[in-house]
Amino acid sequence: MGRNRATLADVARRAGLSKTAASMVLNGREGTRLSAEAHQRVFAAAEELGYRPNVAARSLRTRKTATIAFVSDIVATTRFAGGLIRGALDAARERDHVLLITETQGDAAFEQYAIEAMLDRQVDGVIYAAMATRRLAVPPAILSGPVVLLNATSPEALPCVLPDDERAGRTVTTALLEQGHRDRIALIGRARLKERDPEVSLAAQARLRGIRDILSGAGATLLAEAFCGDWLPEHGYAAMRGLLSKPTRPSAVICMNDRLAFGAYQALGEAGLAVPTDISVVSFDDDPIATWLRPGLSTAALPHEQMGRRAVEILLDDRGTEPVLVPMPLRRRRSIATPAS
C-alpha cells in the first residue's frame, strides 16, 4: 500500500495553525495577519509532507482548472509547424497551466467530439490553430468561452495571432535592394487561388503587398512574375526554367516559399548558374531545407514559437480582439550578393 496523500489538515496540524490559516497562506490570499515565521512554517510543512493542492476542489471554488485546450487541424503532426505547440507549451508551463492538445485532421465529426470532450473538462480557454495561415470557420461550441485563433482569422471578432507576412515581404525585398538589385528582380510563386481566397491563404496576398510596396517606394517594378500551381519544388523548378528562357535574365529572384526556392536552385544548377554569383535568391518560411541548401538560403522565418507563446498570453490575460502580428526575422545566409556585371 502506498502512503496516503497529505491533506491540508495535515499541513495545518504540522504548522500548528488552523486549516483556514494554512489555506490562506498556500493560496497566497491577502488579508492574513500571520507572521513571516508562521508563513515559513506552513510552506515547510507542505514541503515535508509532499502536500499537493486538490485541483478539482480548487476549480470548484475559483471556476479555473489551469488547463488550456489546443485544437488544431494538422499542426501537431507537422514537423515544420511544431513550434506553435512548443511556444504554447512553454508559455502555459510558465503560467502553471497544462495544455491539452488534440488534432482533427480536418474531420468535422471528430473535431466536434474532441472539442466537447475538452469543454467537459472545464478548460479555461481554447487556442484554435491552423497549419496554413488562413481564414476559417470557428466551431460554435468553443465560442462560449475565451478563444484565441493561432495562425488564422475568422469572420467573428476573435483575438488572433498571425505572422507579419506583409512586413516580411518588405524585409526580403529591402535585402535585395540594399545589395544593389533594382530593375531585374523576378518573383516566383504568384498563385491566383492563394491570393484571392483567404480561406486558402492569407500569406500570399500579404507577402505580395509588402514586395510591391518596397519596390514602388524605390521607383522599381518586378522584371517578371512566374505563376505556380502550388508552392512546391517542382513548380519552382519549372518557373525558374521559364525565367531563364526569357531575353533578360533576372539578377535576383524572390520565391514565395522555401520549397519553391529549392526547385529554383535545381534549375539554376542544371543551367550552369551559381547562387548568388549569377542570381541571388531570397524566400520565406525558414523551412529546415533552407539550411541544407548550398549556399544556405536567406529567408524570412515563420516565428511559430513566438506565435504559440503569444496565443497563451493573450488567452490568459484577456488582451482584447485586435490581431497580433508577430515579426518574421530575416535569416541571412549566403544566397544574396551584389548583381553580376
UniProtKB/TrEMBL annotation:
Do you know which SMART domains this protein is assigned to? HTH_LACI
Keywords assigned by UniProt, alphabetized: DNA-binding, Repressor, Transcription, Transcription regulation
Q: Which residues form a coiled coil?
A: none
The segment(s) forming the HTH lacI-type domain are 6-62
Look up the domain of life of the source. Bacteria
Q: Keyword Transcription, does the record have it? A: yes
Write down the InterPro entries for this protein, in alphabetical order: HTH_LacI, LacI/GalR-like_sensor, Lambda_DNA-bd_dom_sf, Peripla_BP_I
Query: Which PANTHER family does the record match to this protein?
Result: HTH-TYPE TRANSCRIPTIONAL REPRESSOR PURR-RELATED, LACI-RELATED TRANSCRIPTIONAL REPRESSOR
Name the record gives this protein: Alanine racemase
| Organism expressing this protein natively | Plantactinospora mayteni
Q: What is the lineage of its organism?
A: Bacteria, Bacillati, Actinomycetota, Actinomycetes, Micromonosporales
